Amino acid sequence: MNLTSQLGEMQVDNAALVEVCRRYSVKELSLFGSAVRGEMRLERATST
Questions:
Q1: 44: Cα within 13 Å, side-chain hemisphere
Q2: Are 41 and 10 in contact (CB under 8 A)?
Q3: Closest Cα to residue 10, out of 31, 33, 40, 32?
Q4: How many H helices and E strands in the chain?
Q5: Quick check: helix, strand or coil at residue 34?
Q6: Is the Cβ–Cβ distance between 32 and 45 less than 8 Å?
Q7: Quick one: pLDDT at residue 37?
Q8: What distance in Å separates the CA atoms of residue 24 and residue 9, rounded to the nearest whole number?
Q9: What pLDDT does 46 receive?
Q10: How far apart are CA 11 and CA 46, in angstroms?
C-alpha cells in the first residue's frame, strides 16, 4: 500500500519522494509558507 501526502492541491506519493531524495542525496527536505499552511496552489507553484 502506497501512502500519499497532501500538499495543497497536490498528492505526493511518499515512496516516490523517498526514492528521489535517495537518488539525489537529499539529507533534509523542508516545507514552508503556503505549503505548510495547506494553501499551496499548483498554478502559483509552477512557472509558465
A1: 8
A2: no
A3: 40
A4: 3, 2
A5: helix
A6: no
A7: 76
A8: 25
A9: 57
A10: 15
Q: Are the beta carbons of 39 and 8 closer than 8 angstroms?
A: yes
Confidence of residue 24 (pLDDT cuts 50, 70, 90): very high
Cell representation of residue 7:
500538499
For 6, residues 6+ apart whose C-beta sits below 8 A from its C-beta are: 12, 38
End-to-end CA distance of the chain: 34
Q: What is the mean pLDDT of residues 27-43?
A: 76
Considering only residues 29 and 31, tell me which one the structure prediction assigns the higher pLDDT.
29
**Which pLDDT value is given to residue 44?**
62
